[in-house]
Write a structure and sequence with these properties.
The chain is α/β, with parallel strands linked by helices. 21% of the residues lie in helices and 19% in strands. Strands 7-6-5-8-15 form a 5-stranded mixed sheet, sandwiched between helices.
Length: 338
Protein backbone atom coordinates (compact mmCIF):
# COMPACT_ATOMS: atom_id res chain seq x y z
CA UNK A 1 0.00 0.00 0.00
CA UNK A 2 1.02 3.61 -0.41
CA UNK A 3 2.80 5.30 2.47
CA UNK A 4 0.89 8.19 4.05
CA UNK A 5 2.97 9.24 7.04
CA UNK A 6 5.66 11.58 5.72
CA UNK A 7 5.90 14.12 8.53
CA UNK A 8 9.27 14.52 10.19
CA UNK A 9 7.89 15.66 13.53
CA UNK A 10 6.48 12.30 14.63
CA UNK A 11 8.39 10.97 17.63
CA UNK A 12 8.11 7.22 18.05
CA UNK A 13 9.34 5.91 21.36
CA UNK A 14 9.36 2.71 23.36
CA UNK A 15 8.04 3.67 26.78
CA UNK A 16 10.61 3.20 29.52
CA UNK A 17 8.42 1.99 32.38
CA UNK A 18 6.28 0.85 29.57
CA UNK A 19 2.90 -0.55 28.79
CA UNK A 20 3.78 -3.37 31.15
CA UNK A 21 2.03 -5.82 28.92
CA UNK A 22 2.35 -9.53 28.30
CA UNK A 23 1.46 -11.09 25.00
CA UNK A 24 1.63 -14.42 23.23
CA UNK A 25 1.09 -14.94 19.53
CA UNK A 26 -1.78 -17.36 19.02
CA UNK A 27 -2.76 -19.12 15.84
CA UNK A 28 -5.82 -17.16 14.85
CA UNK A 29 -8.02 -20.08 13.91
CA UNK A 30 -6.71 -22.79 11.63
CA UNK A 31 -3.24 -24.17 11.02
CA UNK A 32 -3.56 -23.04 7.39
CA UNK A 33 -3.92 -19.43 8.51
CA UNK A 34 -0.88 -19.83 10.73
CA UNK A 35 1.20 -21.22 7.87
CA UNK A 36 0.26 -18.20 5.76
CA UNK A 37 1.45 -15.87 8.53
CA UNK A 38 4.43 -17.73 9.97
CA UNK A 39 6.93 -15.46 8.23
CA UNK A 40 5.54 -12.48 10.12
CA UNK A 41 7.39 -11.37 13.27
CA UNK A 42 6.08 -12.49 16.65
CA UNK A 43 5.96 -10.25 19.67
CA UNK A 44 7.72 -12.92 21.68
CA UNK A 45 10.87 -11.74 19.87
CA UNK A 46 10.62 -8.39 21.68
CA UNK A 47 11.84 -9.98 24.89
CA UNK A 48 14.68 -7.47 25.31
CA UNK A 49 12.62 -4.30 25.74
CA UNK A 50 10.46 -4.98 28.73
CA UNK A 51 9.62 -3.85 32.22
CA UNK A 52 6.44 -5.21 33.73
CA UNK A 53 4.36 -5.01 36.88
CA UNK A 54 1.43 -6.74 38.50
CA UNK A 55 -1.30 -6.40 41.07
CA UNK A 56 -2.34 -9.26 43.37
CA UNK A 57 -5.75 -10.67 42.52
CA UNK A 58 -7.44 -9.39 45.69
CA UNK A 59 -5.67 -6.03 45.90
CA UNK A 60 -7.27 -2.66 45.23
CA UNK A 61 -5.89 -0.34 42.57
CA UNK A 62 -5.18 3.22 43.67
CA UNK A 63 -6.93 5.81 41.50
CA UNK A 64 -5.90 9.17 42.87
CA UNK A 65 -7.66 9.62 46.20
CA UNK A 66 -10.08 6.75 45.58
CA UNK A 67 -9.66 2.99 45.37
CA UNK A 68 -10.87 0.74 42.59
CA UNK A 69 -11.72 -2.82 43.51
CA UNK A 70 -11.11 -5.49 40.88
CA UNK A 71 -13.89 -7.19 39.00
CA UNK A 72 -13.88 -10.97 39.04
CA UNK A 73 -15.71 -12.54 36.11
CA UNK A 74 -15.93 -16.31 35.74
CA UNK A 75 -15.60 -18.00 32.36
CA UNK A 76 -19.02 -19.31 31.37
CA UNK A 77 -19.03 -21.17 28.06
CA UNK A 78 -22.18 -22.97 26.96
CA UNK A 79 -21.82 -26.78 26.68
CA UNK A 80 -21.79 -26.65 22.89
CA UNK A 81 -18.83 -24.26 22.91
CA UNK A 82 -16.63 -26.02 25.45
CA UNK A 83 -13.29 -27.31 24.24
CA UNK A 84 -13.52 -30.82 22.87
CA UNK A 85 -9.80 -31.44 22.34
CA UNK A 86 -7.87 -32.93 25.27
CA UNK A 87 -4.38 -33.49 23.85
CA UNK A 88 -2.15 -30.45 24.50
CA UNK A 89 -0.24 -30.85 21.23
CA UNK A 90 -3.47 -30.91 19.23
CA UNK A 91 -4.82 -27.90 21.14
CA UNK A 92 -1.66 -25.87 20.50
CA UNK A 93 -1.72 -26.95 16.85
CA UNK A 94 -5.26 -25.61 16.52
CA UNK A 95 -5.13 -22.46 18.66
CA UNK A 96 -1.44 -21.59 18.96
CA UNK A 97 -1.41 -21.89 22.77
CA UNK A 98 -2.79 -24.19 25.47
CA UNK A 99 -6.44 -23.15 25.41
CA UNK A 100 -7.44 -25.81 27.94
CA UNK A 101 -5.05 -24.25 30.46
CA UNK A 102 -6.27 -20.77 29.56
CA UNK A 103 -9.87 -21.83 30.18
CA UNK A 104 -8.92 -23.18 33.62
CA UNK A 105 -7.08 -20.05 34.81
CA UNK A 106 -8.88 -17.16 36.53
CA UNK A 107 -9.72 -14.27 34.21
CA UNK A 108 -8.35 -12.03 36.94
CA UNK A 109 -5.15 -13.93 37.55
CA UNK A 110 -2.20 -12.53 39.51
CA UNK A 111 1.11 -11.85 37.74
CA UNK A 112 4.67 -11.36 38.99
CA UNK A 113 6.12 -7.86 39.19
CA UNK A 114 9.31 -7.55 37.13
CA UNK A 115 9.53 -3.76 37.08
CA UNK A 116 12.73 -2.02 38.18
CA UNK A 117 12.31 -0.51 41.63
CA UNK A 118 12.62 3.01 40.21
CA UNK A 119 9.55 2.48 38.01
CA UNK A 120 7.42 1.94 41.09
CA UNK A 121 8.43 5.30 42.58
CA UNK A 122 7.52 7.51 39.61
CA UNK A 123 4.61 9.88 40.25
CA UNK A 124 2.44 10.83 37.25
CA UNK A 125 0.12 13.84 36.87
CA UNK A 126 -3.49 13.25 37.85
CA UNK A 127 -4.80 15.16 34.82
CA UNK A 128 -3.54 12.77 32.14
CA UNK A 129 -5.76 12.38 29.04
CA UNK A 130 -8.47 9.72 28.97
CA UNK A 131 -7.92 6.70 26.73
CA UNK A 132 -10.03 4.60 24.41
CA UNK A 133 -8.56 1.08 24.45
CA UNK A 134 -9.17 -0.69 21.14
CA UNK A 135 -8.77 -4.46 20.95
CA UNK A 136 -9.03 -6.10 17.53
CA UNK A 137 -9.88 -9.78 17.52
CA UNK A 138 -10.45 -12.49 14.96
CA UNK A 139 -11.41 -15.95 16.26
CA UNK A 140 -9.81 -15.18 19.62
CA UNK A 141 -11.07 -17.62 22.30
CA UNK A 142 -13.22 -16.05 24.99
CA UNK A 143 -10.88 -16.87 27.89
CA UNK A 144 -7.80 -15.12 26.47
CA UNK A 145 -9.85 -12.18 25.17
CA UNK A 146 -11.71 -11.67 28.45
CA UNK A 147 -8.52 -12.03 30.49
CA UNK A 148 -7.24 -9.10 28.44
CA UNK A 149 -10.38 -7.04 29.10
CA UNK A 150 -10.41 -7.83 32.82
CA UNK A 151 -6.73 -6.93 33.18
CA UNK A 152 -7.31 -3.56 31.49
CA UNK A 153 -10.27 -2.74 33.76
CA UNK A 154 -8.63 -3.91 36.98
CA UNK A 155 -5.21 -2.39 36.38
CA UNK A 156 -6.20 0.98 34.94
CA UNK A 157 -7.15 3.97 37.11
CA UNK A 158 -10.87 4.47 36.44
CA UNK A 159 -10.50 8.15 35.57
CA UNK A 160 -8.03 7.31 32.77
CA UNK A 161 -10.07 4.55 31.11
CA UNK A 162 -12.86 5.96 28.97
CA UNK A 163 -13.89 2.82 27.14
CA UNK A 164 -12.80 -0.55 25.78
CA UNK A 165 -13.86 -1.18 22.18
CA UNK A 166 -13.73 -4.80 21.02
CA UNK A 167 -13.63 -4.83 17.22
CA UNK A 168 -14.65 -8.19 15.79
CA UNK A 169 -13.00 -8.64 12.39
CA UNK A 170 -15.84 -10.90 11.20
CA UNK A 171 -14.94 -13.91 13.38
CA UNK A 172 -16.26 -17.41 12.71
CA UNK A 173 -15.33 -19.07 16.04
CA UNK A 174 -18.57 -20.42 17.54
CA UNK A 175 -17.65 -19.86 21.19
CA UNK A 176 -17.56 -16.09 20.61
CA UNK A 177 -21.37 -16.28 20.70
CA UNK A 178 -20.82 -16.44 24.48
CA UNK A 179 -18.79 -13.21 24.58
CA UNK A 180 -21.73 -10.76 25.02
CA UNK A 181 -22.86 -12.32 28.30
CA UNK A 182 -19.33 -11.97 29.70
CA UNK A 183 -19.32 -8.19 29.13
CA UNK A 184 -23.00 -7.55 29.86
CA UNK A 185 -22.28 -5.90 33.21
CA UNK A 186 -19.26 -3.88 32.05
CA UNK A 187 -20.44 -0.37 31.22
CA UNK A 188 -17.20 0.72 29.55
CA UNK A 189 -16.95 -2.29 27.22
CA UNK A 190 -18.71 -2.64 23.88
CA UNK A 191 -18.39 -4.83 20.80
CA UNK A 192 -18.25 -3.52 17.23
CA UNK A 193 -18.84 -6.14 14.55
CA UNK A 194 -17.44 -5.85 11.04
CA UNK A 195 -19.22 -7.43 8.09
CA UNK A 196 -15.99 -8.07 6.22
CA UNK A 197 -12.77 -9.82 7.28
CA UNK A 198 -9.90 -8.00 5.61
CA UNK A 199 -7.38 -7.54 8.37
CA UNK A 200 -5.95 -5.52 11.17
CA UNK A 201 -5.72 -2.18 9.33
CA UNK A 202 -9.39 -1.95 8.41
CA UNK A 203 -10.40 -3.12 11.87
CA UNK A 204 -8.20 -0.53 13.58
CA UNK A 205 -9.54 2.27 11.40
CA UNK A 206 -13.07 1.21 12.41
CA UNK A 207 -12.06 1.16 16.07
CA UNK A 208 -10.43 4.60 15.87
CA UNK A 209 -13.53 6.06 14.21
CA UNK A 210 -15.70 4.59 16.98
CA UNK A 211 -13.46 5.96 19.75
CA UNK A 212 -14.67 8.91 21.83
CA UNK A 213 -11.66 9.85 23.94
CA UNK A 214 -8.42 11.79 23.51
CA UNK A 215 -5.89 8.94 23.23
CA UNK A 216 -6.13 5.74 21.21
CA UNK A 217 -4.44 2.66 22.66
CA UNK A 218 -4.39 -0.37 20.39
CA UNK A 219 -3.83 -3.78 21.98
CA UNK A 220 -3.52 -7.26 20.56
CA UNK A 221 -6.39 -9.53 21.57
CA UNK A 222 -4.12 -12.06 23.28
CA UNK A 223 -2.48 -9.84 25.89
CA UNK A 224 -2.63 -8.81 29.53
CA UNK A 225 -1.65 -5.57 31.23
CA UNK A 226 -0.32 -4.89 34.71
CA UNK A 227 -0.61 -2.17 37.28
CA UNK A 228 1.11 1.00 36.12
CA UNK A 229 0.75 0.10 32.45
CA UNK A 230 -1.14 3.13 31.15
CA UNK A 231 0.35 6.12 32.97
CA UNK A 232 3.75 6.09 31.15
CA UNK A 233 2.02 6.03 27.76
CA UNK A 234 -0.40 8.83 28.55
CA UNK A 235 2.28 10.96 30.21
CA UNK A 236 4.45 10.95 27.06
CA UNK A 237 1.51 11.98 24.87
CA UNK A 238 0.39 14.54 27.46
CA UNK A 239 3.82 16.16 27.06
CA UNK A 240 3.68 16.19 23.25
CA UNK A 241 0.59 15.11 21.31
CA UNK A 242 2.74 14.13 18.30
CA UNK A 243 4.48 11.35 20.16
CA UNK A 244 3.55 7.80 19.18
CA UNK A 245 4.37 5.56 22.13
CA UNK A 246 4.99 1.82 22.05
CA UNK A 247 4.98 -0.39 25.14
CA UNK A 248 7.68 -2.62 26.45
CA UNK A 249 6.57 -6.22 25.99
CA UNK A 250 7.23 -9.48 27.80
CA UNK A 251 6.28 -12.81 26.24
CA UNK A 252 3.91 -15.41 27.64
CA UNK A 253 4.90 -19.02 27.03
CA UNK A 254 2.38 -20.66 24.72
CA UNK A 255 2.51 -24.07 26.45
CA UNK A 256 2.20 -23.06 30.13
CA UNK A 257 1.11 -19.38 29.93
CA UNK A 258 3.91 -18.35 32.28
CA UNK A 259 5.82 -15.11 31.79
CA UNK A 260 9.30 -15.02 30.35
CA UNK A 261 11.60 -13.70 33.06
CA UNK A 262 15.11 -12.29 33.07
CA UNK A 263 16.88 -8.94 32.93
CA UNK A 264 15.86 -6.76 29.98
CA UNK A 265 19.00 -4.71 29.53
CA UNK A 266 20.66 -3.43 27.34
CA UNK A 267 17.69 -1.84 25.53
CA UNK A 268 16.46 -2.68 22.06
CA UNK A 269 14.49 -0.84 19.40
CA UNK A 270 12.46 -1.69 16.32
CA UNK A 271 13.77 -1.87 12.77
CA UNK A 272 12.87 -3.59 9.51
CA UNK A 273 14.70 -5.51 6.82
CA UNK A 274 14.58 -5.34 3.01
CA UNK A 275 11.38 -7.41 3.07
CA UNK A 276 9.88 -4.73 5.37
CA UNK A 277 9.49 -7.34 8.11
CA UNK A 278 9.76 -6.02 11.65
CA UNK A 279 13.01 -6.86 13.45
CA UNK A 280 14.64 -6.05 16.78
CA UNK A 281 18.09 -4.39 16.89
CA UNK A 282 20.17 -3.09 19.82
CA UNK A 283 19.50 0.48 20.90
CA UNK A 284 22.36 2.84 21.65
CA UNK A 285 22.28 3.47 25.40
CA UNK A 286 23.74 6.95 24.89
CA UNK A 287 21.96 8.21 21.77
CA UNK A 288 18.57 6.46 21.84
CA UNK A 289 17.55 6.87 25.48
CA UNK A 290 15.49 10.03 25.98
CA UNK A 291 16.27 12.41 28.84
CA UNK A 292 17.11 11.71 32.46
CA UNK A 293 20.39 10.76 34.08
CA UNK A 294 22.59 7.71 33.61
CA UNK A 295 21.26 6.32 36.90
CA UNK A 296 17.72 6.46 35.50
CA UNK A 297 18.42 4.96 32.08
CA UNK A 298 16.73 1.62 32.83
CA UNK A 299 13.34 3.33 33.12
CA UNK A 300 13.56 6.01 30.42
CA UNK A 301 11.92 6.00 26.95
CA UNK A 302 13.93 4.74 23.98
CA UNK A 303 13.75 6.26 20.49
CA UNK A 304 12.70 3.77 17.83
CA UNK A 305 12.28 4.32 14.06
CA UNK A 306 9.57 1.68 13.68
CA UNK A 307 7.21 -0.23 15.97
CA UNK A 308 5.92 -3.83 16.10
CA UNK A 309 2.53 -2.58 14.92
CA UNK A 310 0.33 -4.46 17.37
CA UNK A 311 0.55 -2.29 20.46
CA UNK A 312 0.79 1.49 20.63
CA UNK A 313 -0.77 4.70 21.89
CA UNK A 314 -1.26 8.03 20.12
CA UNK A 315 -3.39 11.14 20.17
CA UNK A 316 -6.72 10.44 18.45
CA UNK A 317 -6.84 13.70 16.49
CA UNK A 318 -3.22 13.25 15.40
CA UNK A 319 -4.09 9.75 14.12
CA UNK A 320 -6.63 11.29 11.74
CA UNK A 321 -4.39 14.27 10.86
CA UNK A 322 -1.86 11.75 9.53
CA UNK A 323 -4.54 10.16 7.34
CA UNK A 324 -5.27 7.05 9.42
CA UNK A 325 -3.84 3.79 8.10
CA UNK A 326 -3.80 3.11 4.38
CA UNK A 327 -7.07 1.17 3.94
CA UNK A 328 -5.62 -0.77 1.00
CA UNK A 329 -3.28 -2.71 3.32
CA UNK A 330 -5.23 -5.95 3.61
CA UNK A 331 -5.13 -8.86 6.03
CA UNK A 332 -2.26 -8.93 8.55
CA UNK A 333 1.25 -7.52 8.28
CA UNK A 334 2.66 -4.24 6.99
CA UNK A 335 1.00 -2.02 9.58
CA UNK A 336 4.30 -1.63 11.44
CA UNK A 337 5.79 0.25 8.50
CA UNK A 338 2.65 2.28 7.83
Amino acid sequence: GRMRIRRTNVLLALAGCGLLLYTFYALQGSQAEHEARKEAPTLASVREVVTVGAVPEAAAVKTGSAEQHPIDIKLDLSPAHRLKLTNQKAIIQEYGFDLALSNSLPLNRSLPDYRPALCKTIQYPHDLPVASVIIIYYNEPVSSLMRNVVSVINRTPAHLLGEIILVDDSSTLAELEDLPKHISGLDKVRIVHRDIHNGIVGARIRGAREAKHDVLIFLDSHSEVCVGWIEPLLERIHGDRKRVVVPHIRGIQHNNLELSGGEMWPPSKGSFNWRLSFTIVPADADRDIIGGTRAEKHVLPVRSPVMPGGLFAMDRKFFFELGEYDPEILYYGGEHVE
